Amino acid sequence: MVEEGKKAPAFTLKDQNGKKVSLKDFLGKNVVLYFYPKDNTSGCTKEACNFRDEFPGFKKLKAVIIGVSPDSVESHKKFAEKYNLPFTLLSDEKKQVLEKYGVWKEKSMYGRKYMGVERSTFIIDKTGKVRKIFRKVKVANHNKEVMEALKELK
Q1: Could you tell me the pTM of the whole model?
Q2: The CATH homologous superfamily of the domain defined by 29-151
């Protein structure tokens, strides 16, 4: 289980351009690693666009934003282009990173149980340690919560 104060689990996944990206590529920067269920759905689109709209503020704090979902590289590419997302989206079709971070969970909707992504955000500091975990994220104002948590890292 991922815990605050512990080293973030390492990973390498393909981004929306098919390029391999590893967490270790971002040592020396604060990382906002957010997990979301699906491209082009209302909550996920709102969350991504909120991060996009606050992107200059995140850049000022020397933070990078990385979104992860089980969608394909192609789906991420279309999603990023459609909404002009200036950050990295990683494809975890095998759900290995989702499981490492404990966000691939049993969910239920209308009495039907299924496996899916629990919307979660992890703030990882410049040394690769998890500093803050937001689980069961509510999309409204989440970007502001993340921004406040990043300001406290200084």
Answers
A1: 0.95
A2: Glutaredoxin (3.40.30.10)
